[in-house]
Amino acid sequence: MNRGKQMIGVKIVSYSMLIIFSLLCIIPFLIIISASLSSEGELAKFGYFIMPRGITLSAYKMVLQNPRSLIGAYKVTIFTTAVGSVMSVIISAMLAYPLSRQDYKWRNYINFFVYFTMLFSGGAVPSYILIAQYMHLRNNIWVLIIPLLVNPWNVFLMRTYFAQVNKALIEAAAIDGAGELRIFFMVVVPVSITGMATVFLMIALAFWNDWYQCLMFMTNEKILTLQYFLARVMSNIDDMLKNSASISSGVDLSSMPSETTRMAMCVFAAGPMVFVFVFFQKYFVRGISVGSVKG
Amino acid sequence: MKSNEATVTEVAGKHKKKKYGSTHWLLTLMALPGILIIFIFKYLPMGGLILAFKNYKYSLGILGSEWVGMKNFMFLFNSSTFSILVRNTVLYNLAFIVLNIVAGIMAALFLDNVMSKRGIKLFQTSMFLPYFLSWIVVSYISLSLLDYDKGIINQILGVFGQNSISFYSETKWWPAILIFFNTWKNLGFNALIYYGTIISIDSELYEAATIDGCGYFRRVKYITIPHLKPTVIILGLLALSGIFRSDFGLFYYLPADSGALYDVTDVLDTYITRSILNTSSLGQSTATGLVQSIVGLLLILTVNSVVRKYESESALF
Description:
The complex is a heterodimer.
Chain A: H1 2-37, H2 40-46, H3 58-65, H4 68-100, H5 107-119, H6 124-134, H7 152-163, H8 167-175, H9 180-191, H10 193-208, H11 212-217, H12 226-246, H13 259-291
Helix pairs in contact in A: 1-13, 3-13, 4-7, 4-10, 7-10, 8-9, 10-13, 12-13
Chain B: H1 2-16, H2 23-47, E1 54-55, H3 61-64, E2 66-67, H4 71-78, H5 80-112, H6 117-128, H7 135-146, H8 152-159, H9 174-199, H10 203-211, H11 216-241, H12 248-253, H13 262-265, H14 268-277, H15 282-310
Antiparallel strand pairs in B: 1-2
């Protein structure tokens, strides 16, 4: 009896805490979406709120009417996400597969070669100098892709998936005379396709959300990713406000995106990935649960 | 190591003797693109670490620049900024590590008490949403909460007749703000990992404990927590090895790179990045990066050997 009461108490606490946690995670989304749907005047007067005030689509119209940069940034992000994810998943898988083969002679060496980069790194400055001054990749769209292609985490995650492939399958294919490449693409990849989908989604998320490469290497306004474009919008406004405070003349405040427009841009930048996530959640969930397996 | 290799080659020999003599070369060829990319973008920069002992001049390049011995390090260790940076980096990371573990485990335990599948999924999805945002989008969210005139928090303060807070110029609020947003963004991820471990625990253990008269809290204490220990240790270890590193976007974009807040928001990584963006004192920031890497490596080796002694199952290597 006592015990039953205890369990009811535990359940009530659990549900209430989860409701609080979930609300804390969802409400900020509502605030941003509401701001993007509010009229500029209402937002300026009353501030942010979890419901739109004076509902209007004018912010979205503004974004789409003045599309130069946002559409440009969209194109860049779609390109890096699509091309980067495909290249990354293929290259990582081809590296992970030999590492999953117990009978591969140089397995231990290559394993260490990959693992060591997780423990020690040259740091940001040497990487920057290498890419910018020796490889001359500044303002080249490939700088948003190539340096990010191989992430040791993803390689080890895929190695775990490949290691679970039934050895008999591989041997049977080998006896049938299939070469290593054929075995890999025709047997191993199809069998571990759900695992690869997880890694693909995680890589796509990383490319979609990347801004660091842009911050470091892009001075050309035409090649900015969506996320970095958002950051620029914000910091341009900060700069203008700072200047207008000190100079207080000649600053064209009307040319800046309004608050509601900025929030609409934010929805554009975050929306697609959140949408994808909700649909493919089970892949993320599975992949991340396996991701905690030790390397 | 040696005996290990011997058996690997032996096994390989047995399987592949007939027609797969070229197997090793083919597998190496497959791995080659990945190996090359890692070599270029991870190993070559390690060579660039010699810059930490040089006075870098753009025109002279890495190799041509003049050697200055330990001067960059002396400058760092004597500057008051460096100690502030180290203090901020380490303290924030410690807070993040503890809170990520505590909040993650709590959320996982709560999830475990939810009966309906749909409820679990609903809570999990909601808590996971922030994980999919970039720090830049999060900085828009934090602005909507913290803005002086229009922010939600100041509106709430207004309702209670309090004065508005100017968050972007007052340092004292930022430790709490940064810690909150870091926990907030990672909650779903951590909850997922711990929840995954909890549901993999054999349910017979709980049934037996219940029959033996264990209440909920004792079951958690004697069954759930011990099962979570290896995961906590592995994740904690990895986090600890990065104690001199930071999730750069959090510290750079949330405070809007506001100079007034540097005292409590600046960490080693933001300092290094600013020096790259201004191309100033690159030698010193390379030295900072080298300190980060060495401390990280030493920490993980030390902690790992300690773990191996007491919990060999959970050691990383």
